[in-house]
Amino acid sequence: MKKVAFLNLSLHSFNQERVWEKFFDGGDKNSFNLYIHSKSKKKCRFSDYYIDKSIPTGWGHFSLVEATIELIKAALEDEDNEYFSLISDSHFPLYTLDKTVSLIKERYPKTTFSKHFSFHTKVKSQLTFRKGLKGYKFDNYNAVCQFFVLRRVDAVKFVETFNDWSKFFVKNEVIFADEFYFWGVGKEIGVDFEMGQATTYSDWSIRKDKLGKVERNPKAFKVFSSAMLQFYRDKGFLYSRKVMPNTLVITRPFI
Q1: pLDDT by 10s per residue, the chain, length 255
Q2: Are 36 and 5 in contact, with CB atoms under 8 Å apart?
Q3: What distance in Å separates the CA atoms of residue 118 and residue 144, rounded to the nearest whole number?
Q4: N-terminal to C-terminal alpha carbon distance within the chain
Q5: Strand order through the sheet with 239-240
Q6: Contact 12, 88 (CB under 8 A)
Q7: Residues 1, 142: Cα–Cα separation, whole Å
Q8: In contact, 223 and 250? CB cutoff 8 Å
Q9: Taken in order 115, 118, 124, 128, is the CA torsion positive or negative?
Q10: How far, in whole angstroms, is CA 196 from its chain's centroid?
């Protein structure tokens, strides 16, 4: 059976651990593998899924790409992993495990990236990203949603070419490379990808902080309801993002 590898790029494990535990326990255990890049390595119910190599990551830094590559490397060790779905600790599943696996296989015949939700953030990220390049001209680059689905053949390409392409990116500075690297490098190395349906809903509505500066992060949920879950399902998403540990969840996603 061709499996889905869930790649969790995380500070810890999951904000809603009980929800994800029920998600993974409620379906076919032979249909998936879980890999977690945990910055804290804190003991929890998902500790067994931590990958061995952990990269010290920084917000907006190229280290996020490095950590993602480590997740992909770990997942490639199982030859049955065919689909690679990137998620985070704040992700929340909108379907059961079996339904999620089925939808991934149905919807993503190719490696798929999706448009960035925020035009404002995309433009700002492009300006910052341009300053983070060195020694190579990436033509017609753009910001995309960082949560992709890779097919195995392309996951292999990204790992095999990483040392060659990573040298063109400034390290230890905020350049939002996670929104550019896989899409931009994918174009350069001939990945046959699509721009398609995003797996993950994020609320990038324009908001301002107390000092009047525009927030650069997606909005965190205070409440997550059944109506919201159904709305995001209807929009084609598999997960919603920024469900926090203190989010009041008043829905049952596994129906």
Answers
A1: 899 999 999 988 999 999 999 999 999 999 999 999 998 888 889 999 999 999 999 998 999 999 999 999 999 999 999 999 999 999 999 999 999 999 999 999 999 999 876 555 666 667 777 788 898 888 777 778 899 999 999 999 999 999 999 999 999 998 888 988 999 999 999 999 999 999 999 987 776 667 777 666 788 999 999 999 999 999 999 999 999 999 999 987 665
A2: no
A3: 10
A4: 24
A5: 92-93, 239-240, 200-201
A6: no
A7: 35
A8: yes
A9: negative
A10: 15
Classified as helix, coil or strand, 19 is helix
* d(C-alpha 56, C-alpha 79), whole Å: 28
pTM flag (> 0.90): yes
What would the two tokens of residue 125 be?
């990220």
User: What separation in angstroms does the CA of 70 have from each of 15, 59, 73?
Assistant: 22, 17, 5
Q: Which one-letter amino acid corresponds to residue 53?
A: K
**Alpha helix stretches (DSSP H) within 80-238:** 97-107, 119-131, 152-166, 181-188, 226-234
Domains and CATH numbers, the chain: 3-200 (3.90.550)
Q: Identify which of 92, 98, 129, 90 has the alpha carbon closest to the alpha carbon of residue 4.
A: 98
Closest to 149 (Cα-Cα) out of 232, 81, 95, 59: 81
Identify each DSSP E strand in the chain by its residue range: 3-10, 32-38, 81-88, 92-93, 111-113, 149-151, 193-195, 200-201, 221-225, 239-240, 243-250
